[in-house]
Automatic annotation (TrEMBL):
It comes from Maritalea mediterranea. Involved in the cellular defense against the biological effects of O6-methylguanine (O6-MeG) and O4-methylthymine (O4-MeT) in DNA. Repairs the methylated nucleobase in DNA by stoichiometrically transferring the methyl group to a cysteine residue in the enzyme. This is a suicide reaction: the enzyme is irreversibly inactivated. This is Methylated-DNA--protein-cysteine methyltransferase. It catalyses: a 4-O-methyl-thymidine in DNA + L-cysteinyl-[protein] = a thymidine in DNA + S-methyl-L-cysteinyl-[protein]; a 6-O-methyl-2'-deoxyguanosine in DNA + L-cysteinyl-[protein] = S-methyl-L-cysteinyl-[protein] + a 2'-deoxyguanosine in DNA. CDD domains: ATase. Keywords: Activator, Cytoplasm, DNA damage, DNA repair, Methyltransferase, Transferase. Its EC number is 2.1.1.63. It is found in: Cytoplasm. PROSITE patterns: HTH_ARAC_FAMILY_2, MGMT. The active site is at 318 (nucleophile). The keyword Phosphoprotein does not apply.
Amino acid sequence: MLFQLPHDDQLYQALLDRDPSYDGRVFVGVSSTGIFCRFTCPARKPKRENCTFFETASEALEMGFRACKKCHPTTSEAEANKAIRTLVTALEDRPDHFWQESDISRLGFDPSTVRRAFKRQFGITFLEMARLTRLRNSFTTLKQGGKMIEAQLDAGFSSSSAFRTAFAKHIGLKPKELRADAPLKADWFDTPLGTMVAVADTTHLHLLEFHDRKALPTELKKLFKTAKGQMGFGTTPIIEETKRQVLTFFEGKHPHFDLPLALHGSEFTRQVWRELQTIPAGETVSYGELAKRLGNPSAARAVARANGANQIAVIIPCHRVIGADGQLTGYGGGLWRKQKLIELELTYKRARSG
């Protein structure tokens, strides 16, 4: 897990030092370029605020980063494996190709052996790695207002049905269901804790989630239904302001948010979400404590359900709720992110008491 790694400041110093002891153990994603590298990469080192650290190459790929062509991070521990070295190089040369097992065979390798080797080395198969690369290309095309057929071709799919299936699996909706002229827009942006998806209209923010949250497809489907299909790719002034405030928060400059939020939930759920926003950055409460604040001490379980249903991450700080024993409890964005958020917010608390 990422939170078991050394502190990010120590990792950044190791990056500056090109420390070979981290080679293959930790990777750095650079938000300003969209590329991830080995610590020993000869390229000019990025600014600290643009760095996100990953334990595996697959994590970086899943966050939308591309492999650096100078240091070849996906081959850091696989130089001795001819199949991995050859296929990763081939993928870098042909990122838009729709790779299949027959391609692997034509290159002289056994598909089942390759599958096990990639899974063992990167946590995903070669074909999954290729699919992530193609889908990233299609997202970029749709975001820029490209037509569906263009996105399909950019994703490397010769079959439109195959493309729709892959896209639906990734975000929970079919591309044809997203209208370019819809008032509700979806966009994504990089943060130090990974890519976030934002959905907003011209007046309110409706959703803000880490892109790999398991519940995201379900949340998008519900929002799509509530909006009666009026959803598409793009940005709005609210999304741009959300990006600015969230990144300012992660930079440690300002702990507060001032954004108009559209709260999709029951009256009790909305009450829980509003109460969450009163918890100062750097403070934590238990579900029981939160229930008492709401005047209903026996509602701890209901509070927990409302907390888990939050679909505006970070801004509605459900990460500030912990177990009664002081331990971290479930967080849709991953416990490692919850710990990182709490650690970041401790700096705000120290600044207040300082």
